[in-house]
Each structure stands twice: as structure tokens, then as C-alpha cells.
């Protein structure tokens, strides 16, 4: 490849990267600025800066008890989902990666097959099951199904990472007197921190954005999460687009902040799982 071709390739990649970034940033910027406008400004000047700025849209939401309660509900459910799905998946992935037994690949394929079934397909039988178990209006009715549907991709990522750890490490640990559980807990999990961070981020973002399951499980509004709250807020203030935009932006901030902080671990974990 000549220098001219390499320069042209870099230029094209930069242009494509800028275009993709614009597709992501522009809608977010529109929402952020739109929250500082009133409806009149949104009609006459949708793309310009607010004139005057209307911070009351954001302040009214930030001083609302309902918003903070929904934020706490989303945080509680997301963190509990991560604990369940990562804990169960780590143990399952360890068995699939480091032990040999008859039917191992068949069982692993059964787990992986869960990726082929979208969540919406199971919503009706899941609702019936949760109702029979008495888990409606109970956070466990959201946490456990979310964890179950997060198992396939989490097990796949962790198994790939665990298989990439050299066998010599396990042999050395065995010679030092470590059993299988001690090796898993003291050595394997600390070495797998990038992969654990990756699946934790994926589980938190998936839980944070889940709308249908909390909508079906929670009839008690005190348990509503932010996605359900956004929908309800939009219905309540359908004529106040600026206030709805402010609510949507504030609902995205925690997930975006968490993703920005964990981005490096996420990329490192995915790279490690691909190599594994």
C-alpha cells in the first residue's frame, strides 16, 4: 500500500468516524438544548441555542420526589441484576471453560441458544409465571428474569476469557494446594476483572433500558423505573415537549456517566474475550 493510499484510507476512516459520531451526538445535543427551551422556541428555533434559557424544566424535575424514587428503583434493580447474573455466569463459565465432562458442549450450546429468543416472545408466559409465584409488584419479578436473559451472552464472554488463561497458572495453583474453588475465587476472578467489568456494564445498561418488563410487573407506581417513568411523564405532559426532553435527558445521564467511566474496562474485556 502506497503512502497516498494509506493517507486516503485514514481520511475516509476519519470522515466515517465523524459522521457516526455526529449521528450519536446531534440528537443528544438537541435533547439537552431542547430541555432549556420552551415550546415556543422549539417551534420557531428548534436547532438554535435557547433564547432565553429556561432552566426551570430541569430544576422542576430535579426537585421532584418521583424522579429520584424512579432513579433509586432503576439503580437497585440494575445492581441486583448484575450481582445475580455475573455471579451465576462466572461459576457456569468456569465449569464450561476449565472442566471436561460428557455433554459439556451440548449444555453450553443450550445456554447459547438463549440468544436466539427475543425477550418480547417470552413476556406473556413470563407474566403468567411471575403471577403464579407472587412476584408481581416485587423487584425480584424484574431482577430474576433480567438475570436469566442475561446469562447467555455473559457466559459466552466469560468462558472465552477463562479459556484464555494458561493452564500453567492452574497447575501452579494446584501444586500450591489450591483446590478448584480456591483457584476460581483467589486467582481466576482477580485475573478476569476486565471481563467481569465488561459483562457488568452490559448487564447494567440492559437493565437500565428495560422498559417492557417493569411495565408488566409493576402496577404499583412507587416501583416504577426510569424508562416507565419517562413514558408516564410523556403522557402527562404531552403538550410540553421541552419538559419531556429535559426528563429524557436526565434519565440518560446516570447510564451515560457509568458507561463513560467504565468504557476502558469494557473495551479491554471485549478484547480479552475475543483473544480467548
Shape: globular
Taking pLDDT < 50 over at least 5 consecutive residues as the criterion, the unreliable ranges are none
Please identify the structural class as seen in this structure. Answer: mainly alpha
Number of helices: 13
Order of helices and strands: HHHHHHHHHHHHH
Q: Percentage of helical residues? A: over 70%
Specify the biggest β-sheet: none
Mean pLDDT: 86
- Strand portion: under 5%
**Separation of termini?**
31 Å
Describe this structure in words.
There is one protein chain. The protein is an all-alpha fold. Helices cover 77% and strands 0% of the residues. The protein is built from 13 helices and no strands. It has helices spanning 3-34, 39-44, 56-62, 65-98, 104-112, 123-133, 140-163, 167-175, 180-191, 193-209, 212-217, 226-236, 241-275. α1 (3-34) runs antiparallel to α13 (241-275) and α7 packs parallel to α13. The mean pLDDT is 86.
Using brief descriptors, characterize the structure shown.
276 residues, mainly alpha, globular
Write a brief structural summary.
The protein contains 13 helices and no strands.
Topology readout:
Layout: H1 3-34, H2 39-44, H3 56-62, H4 65-98, H5 104-112, H6 123-133, H7 140-163, H8 167-175, H9 180-191, H10 193-209, H11 212-217, H12 226-236, H13 241-275
Amino acid at each position: 500500500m502506497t503512502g497516498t493510499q494509506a493517507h486516503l484510507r485514514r481520511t475516509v476512516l476519519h470522515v466515517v468516524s465523524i459522521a457516526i459520531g455526529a449521528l450519536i451526538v446531534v440528537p443528544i445535543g438537541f435533547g439537552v438544548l431542547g430541555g432549556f427551551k420552551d415550546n415556543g422556541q422549539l417551534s420557531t428555533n428548534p436547532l438554535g441555542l435557547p433564547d432565553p434559557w429556561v432552566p426551570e424544566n430541569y430544576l422542576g424535575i430535579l426537585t421532584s420526589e418521583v424522579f429520584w424514587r424512579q432513579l433509586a428503583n432503576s439503580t437497585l434493580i440494575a445492581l441486583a441484576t448484575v450481582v445475580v447474573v455475573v455471579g451465576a455466569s462466572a461459576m457456569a463459565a468456569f465449569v464450561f471453560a476449565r472442566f471436561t465432562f460428557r455433554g459439556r458442549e451440548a449444555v453450553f450450546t443450550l445456554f447459547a441458544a438463549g440468544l436466539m429468543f427475543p425477550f418480547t416472545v417470552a413476556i406473556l408466559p413470563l407474566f403468567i409465571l411471575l403471577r403464579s409465584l407472587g412476584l408481581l409488584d416485587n423487584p425480584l419479578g424484574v431482577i430474576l428474569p433480567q438475570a436469566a436473559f442475561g446469562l447467555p451472552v455473559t457466559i459466552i464472554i466469560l468462558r472465552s476469557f477463562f479459556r484464555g488463561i494458561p493452564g500453567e497458572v492452574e497447575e501452579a495453583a494446584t501444586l500450591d494446594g489450591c483446590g478448584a474453588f480456591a483457584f476460581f475465587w483467589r486467582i481466576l476472578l482477580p485475573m478476569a476483572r476486565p471481563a467481569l467489568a465488561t459483562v457488568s456494564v452490559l448487564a447494567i445498561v440492559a437493565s437500565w433500558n428495560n422498559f417492557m418488563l417493569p411495565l408488566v410487573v409493576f402496577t404499583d407506581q412507587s416501583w416504577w423505573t426510569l424508562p416507565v417513568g419517562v413514558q408516564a411523564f410523556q403522557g402527562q405532559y404531552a403538550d410540553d415537549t421541552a419538559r419531556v426532553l429535559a426528563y429524557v435527558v436526565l434519565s440518560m445521564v446516570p447510564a451515560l456517566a457509568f458507561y463513560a467511566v467504565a468504557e476502558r474496562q469494557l473495551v479491554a474485556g471485549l478484547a480479552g474475550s475475543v483473544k480467548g
